[in-house]
Design brief:
Largest interface: A-B, 63 and 67 residues
Distance between the termini of chain A: 60 Å
Largest sheet of chain A: 2 strands, antiparallel
CATH architecture of the largest domain in chain A: Orthogonal Bundle
Shape of chain B: globular
Strand order of the largest sheet of chain A: 1-2
Shape of chain A: globular
Number of domains of chain B: 1
Strand order of the largest sheet of chain B: 1-4
Number of domains of chain A: 2
Order of helices and strands of chain B: HHHHEEEHHHHEHHH
Largest sheet of chain B: 2 strands, antiparallel
Strand content of chain B: under 5%
CATH class of the largest domain in chain A: Mainly Alpha
Structural class of chain A: mainly alpha
Radius of gyration of chain B: 20 Å
Number of strands of chain B: 4
Helix content of chain A: 55-70%
Strand content of chain A: under 5%
Oligomer: heterodimer
CATH architecture of chain B: Orthogonal Bundle
Number of helices of chain A: 17
Number of strands of chain A: 4
Helix content of chain B: over 70%
Radius of gyration of chain A: 25 Å
Distance between the termini of chain B: 59 Å
CATH topology of chain B: ABC transporter involved in vitamin B12 uptake, BtuC
Order of helices and strands of chain A: HEEHHHHHHHEHHHHHEHHHH
Structural class of chain B: mainly alpha
């Protein structure tokens, strides 16, 4: 007990020393000079919190050791199917009954689901930490914006190019993977993401610099525009063809539905991948690369494939994002964006599709709450990453490994 | 042509002083990597905290009346080193120690979380904007090398190079001769064996993090004096570049980190001076990718085979 109090006291004192220059003494600019103002509230709160936590820790550890109170059970395939169904129904219900603002958040949720599923292929299946994922996202968005501005391509025409170009960049950047271990890869991708952003900001002639490219058109419906008036003389718009009154929220719902379709496509690809020999090999490689190599699996090709596929997902999501915003600029694709997507994957559970989807929805909800929380949200996200790694590295909704069970009696002896 | 030599000398001076800071931070990356085998993503943020603590200390000294300049600077350096060292220790205890032995991805993500957390923690505490650092060391040593362009070797840059060189000599002697330094080298060769031979490996790991943080803090205090402003986001870019320096020199090798730091500073400054200044970050990251691609062992690194 005495030992315990002593360690708690030391922790509290260290916290106080650490926080004093950052939170306690606030630098104030006074003309050319600097002054200090003193604030004690947060230091006192933090110190008492650390003291209590440190004091209670041994007991909490004892109480929870061996119990699985804090973990949700892994879902079996049938339950997973039901969960997917519930999510889909909820998504469609939002399209039918949600307000315009809700649907706008729904669009973002779909974009993040696609992104998170793409990153999940790289981080979850293959175990390669990609910190420049927003770079591929940017390539998708900028490809659509540029093709539209310079060649007049629409959303559907430029989509294959956006996906293809992002995938190509993934392939090219994937080559370092041939030689590098996981942690070097993380840094290389981080550098790559930054390079893309710096280029987008400084190649003003091509990308419009910090202002980005605006007035990107919305997607068309089988060639019909969804606008009040057709941009070409004599062409029919969608609402004229359908005989509806024009309503701007139709466009929002339409974009949302496109998002749902692409998200379903991404889920389908991910599900197939997890059952395919390639997906199995990826997971095996994540667990033990050397064993894989000795079993005749080519890790290089696999890693490249995973990286390229993940980048392609980001390219598609980038196009959708550009269409939703009508504008792309470098700040939409910063490192922070990569962190958001990573948090979604990590919270949900790396490698677990359902978990990743729920994680993406959670992140979008957190991001949309805004207001008071917005200031602290990066702080929370950083903490979430650390806490999840210590407490539950497999995520909130881990996936049970797919296997075939033989019913008793089925095997004849 | 007559302008070329003085301008070249000026770039050389600037490059060496920036490189000195990279080298100080790179040592922290390389030591942690050599011993624990992980990239401490949060190291750049530790450096940023060092810069802030140093500035707060200087301001506090000035508020109570100040004193002779060398004393104030030394006091700020020491205070910043101590407090930032505690940060290094705390980060290791909280975020990395529970994860020892986990798959490689796990501590990496945790480190990223710490880095994001610390950036925003300082952003909340001190404001997410530039703080102007009052210059303490005015002027410098100007000299003419022919031509109209006078080379200026400012005192703050001299201080950076001087302090860095002293610290590096001290560190080299320490690692080579002290008991703790020998324990560090033993741990980086074979942690399990060192443990069996009675070295307290936990202590060595903590010490490595503290030492890295102390060196980064010194770098932070000095760079504030040289660039004239700091903000909570300097850690990210500087950390990435210092890591580049560590890789360039061969990760795991302390002399390599020193060499890599100076080299990167020079390359970057010359790229900035003779190419486009907006692209100096692109040059560093491009260099990082190229080095990792074609020369992953770096200048002084050892080629290690991964064994089962």
């Amino acid at each position: 007990m005495q030992e315990n109090i002593k360690s708690a006291l030391i922790a509290a004192v260290l916290t106080a020393i650490m926080m004093l220059p950052i939170f306690g003494m606030h630098l104030e600019q006074e003309g050319l000079n600097l002054g200090l103002s003193y604030h004690w509230k947060w230091i006192v709160i933090a110190c008492s919190a650390v003291f209590c936590a440190q004091l209670a820790r041994p007991y909490v550890m004892k109480a929870f050791s061996g119990s699985s109170l804090l973990s949700l059970p892994a879902l079996n395939p049938n339950q997973q199917r039901v969960a997917f169904g519930v999510l889909l129904v909820a998504a469609l219900a939002l399209a039918a009954f949600g307000s315009r603002a809700d649907i706008s958040i729904g669009q973002l949720a779909m974009i993040y689901i696609i992104l998170a599923l793409g990153l999940n292929i790289v981080v979850g299946f293959a175990g390669l930490l990609n910190l420049g994922y927003a770079g591929f996202y940017a390539i998708g968005g900028y490809t659509f914006a540029l093709l539209n501005r310079d060649l007049g391509f629409g959303f559907w025409q430029s989509l294959p190019f956006a996906a293809g170009l992002a995938a190509l960049f993934g392939l090219v950047l994937g080559f370092p993977v041939l030689r590098l271990r996981g942690d070097y890869l993380a840094i290389v991708t981080l550098g790559f993401g930054e390079i893309i952003r710096i280029l987008a900001r400084n190649l003003t002639d091509l990308t419009g610099g910090p202002d980005g490219i605006s007035s990107i058109p919305k997607p068309t419906v089988f060639g019909y525009e969804m606008a009040r008036r057709a941009s070409e003389e004599g062409a029919q718009t969608f609402h004229q063809m359908m005989g509806w009154a024009y309503n701007t929220s139709h466009m929002e719902v339409y974009l949302y539905l496109i998002g749902i379709v692409f998200a379903i496509g991404a889920i389908a690809i991910s599900v197939r991948l997890s059952r395919m020999p390639m997906g199995r090999a990826l997971e095996a490689m994540r667990e033990d690369e050397i064993a894989c190599r000795s079993l005749g699996i080519n890790p290089t090709g696999l890693k490249l494939a995973a990286f390229t596929l993940g980048a392609m997902f980001a390219g598609i999501a980038g196009s959708l994002f550009a269409a939703r915003q009508g504008l792309v600029n470098p700040e939409s694709f910063s490192f922070v964006e990569s962190v958001f997507i990573l948090v979604a994957v990590v919270v949900g559970g790396m490698g677990s599709l359902l978990g990743v989807i729920v994680g993406a929805i959670l992140i979008v909800c957190l991001l949309s709450m805004g207001s008071d929380l917005a200031e602290y949200r990066m702080l929370y996200f950083g903490l979430i990453l650390v806490v999840m790694m210590i407490w539950r590295p497999q995520g909130l909704l881990p996936v049970g490994r797919r296997h075939v069970e033989v019913a008793p009696g089925e095997v004849s002896s | 042509m007559s302008e070329f030599i003085p301008q070249f000398t000026q770039q050389l001076i600037n490059g060496l002083s920036v490189g000195a800071i990279y080298a100080l931070i790179a040592i922290g990356y390389t030591m942690v990597y050599g011993i624990v085998g992980m990239i401490n993503f949060a190291h750049g943020e530790i450096y940023m905290i060092g810069a802030y603590v140093g500035l707060v200390a200087l301001t506090a000294f000035a508020a109570v009346g100040g004193g002779p300049l060398p004393l104030m600077l030394a006091g700020a350096l020491i205070l910043s080193a101590v407090i930032t060292g505690i940060y290094g220790y705390a980060v290791e205890q909280v975020a990395y120690k529970p994860l020892r032995g986990a798959p490689r991805l796990v501590p990496l993500i945790s480190a990223l979380g710490v880095s994001v957390f610390l950036t925003n923690y300082v952003g909340l505490g001190q404001g997410a904007r530039d703080v102007a650092v009052p210059a303490l060391l005015y002027g410098g040593w100007s000299f003419n090398m022919g031509g109209t362009f006078a080379v200026n070797f400012s005192y703050s840059r001299m201080l950076i190079i001087f302090v860095t060189v002293i610290l590096m000599i001290g560190l080299t002697l320490f690692i080579k001769h002290s008991r703790l330094g020998q324990a560090c080298r033993a741990c980086s060769q074979d942690m399990a064996m060192a443990n069996l031979l009675g070295i307290d490996t936990n202590k060595v790991i903590s010490f490595t993090f503290i030492l890295g943080a102390v060196l980064a803090a010194v770098g932070g205090v000095l760079i504030g004096q040289a660039t004239g402003k700091i903000n909570p986001f300097i850690g990210f870019i500087f950390g990435l570049k210092a890591f580049t320096a560590a890789v360039l020199g061969g990760i795991g090798s302390i002399p390599g980190a020193m060499l890599g730091g100076f080299l990167l500073g020079l390359v970057e400054t010359f790229a900035q001076g003779y190419l486009l200044s907006e692209y100096k970050d692109v040059v560093s990251f491009g260099l990082l990718i190229l080095v990792l691609l074609f020369w992953p062992t770096g200048l002084l690194g050892k080629n290690t085979m991964e064994k089962v």
